[in-house]
Amino acid sequence: MYNLSIKVQSGPSNYFNHINAIENINDFFTKEEINNSIWIYGEKAAKAASKYLPIDLSDNNINSFCIKGHCSYEIVDYLKRKSNNPPAVIGIGGGTIMDIAKATAAKLNKPFIAIPTIAATCAAWTPLSVWYSKEGKALGYEIFKQSNFLVLVEPRIIINAPIKYLKAGFADTIAKQYESEILVQGLDKIPYTAHIAVNIAKDINKTLLSEGIEAIANIDNPKYQQSIINVIDAIIAGGGLIGGLGERFTRVAAAHAIHNGISSIERSKDILHGTKVAYGILVQTALLNNDILLKEQIEQFKKLGLPTKLADLNLDYSNKNELSLIINTTLKPSESIHLLPFKVDEIILEKAISKVEQFNITDKE
Known about the structure:
Layout lengths: L13 E4 L13 H6 L1 E4 L1 H7 L13 E4 L6 H10 L6 E5 L1 H14 L3 E5 L11 E5 L5 E6 L6 E4 L1 H5 L3 H22 L7 H26 L7 H22 L7 H10 L9 H15 L3 H14 L15 H11 L15 H19 L1
Helix pairs in contact: 3-4, 6-7, 6-8, 6-10, 7-8, 9-10, 9-12, 10-11, 10-13
């Protein structure tokens, strides 16, 4: 029998997503502890969150660090050296800042507080950081022993962020169902927590597809505020919960491997993670020969302005060298595409990509 043992880290100790949620920090820390904590943030994130914060980050008495660049050992070591036994580590920003702050908290063995300013991933929820070199090359990820202590989501910050982040988070989250279902397909037994995670992924997709698309399209309409809060919960809490409960049985399959293949093209570096995963979902569905679902997904993605062809990612399908690099990177032996219940080679993958591209041509006719 295959190994069923997994480590379950369901989520943070405390999670709040509502208007004025950041004020809940006062229920856990004194004013002095808040002032003496390390505050790690991005420049744009600090501006977006400033009026909701309990401190002024420009105050010289505050241990605050505006960070640029990837989550690297050098940056985290620098922050660790600059610390002086802080009560907590607080991160304000998107996934990169979350990863840097989480890693710093883990190295210091201090509570981590997340104040996300976008909902493009579940980074604020998961006790995981992706490591990069100083040059920006991905080195792998680390799952920390301690879970995040406090996640404070002020929806007004996220609603006022560029809409592309919410759309990317939507795609990265619906991928959870499509990938987790493949990962458990054909297995006679899985851990029960993974079974729960797969069902949560299905329920999240129902919510995102039934009310999320319309809510995102009407994000400035107060009538849709609760639906947007539900979408944010689905992305941050739901996406993180699925991976935390199911571990390797519910994390990544072909869609994320295709994301990695696309990321091998230099000019795709600035395209958001979830945006590239969206295209990966379509290719994974094409690999499964599910044309009905593929048509539905393409229609849904077009409503949201998510990519349905390589041209939407500034890539050229007719460029055989680029296409070959995407395919070869996706098919590296270590990639999660090999978790599919059938073998995928260069010919099969190229046919799947061709099918996605052809669907877009057919739709125009």
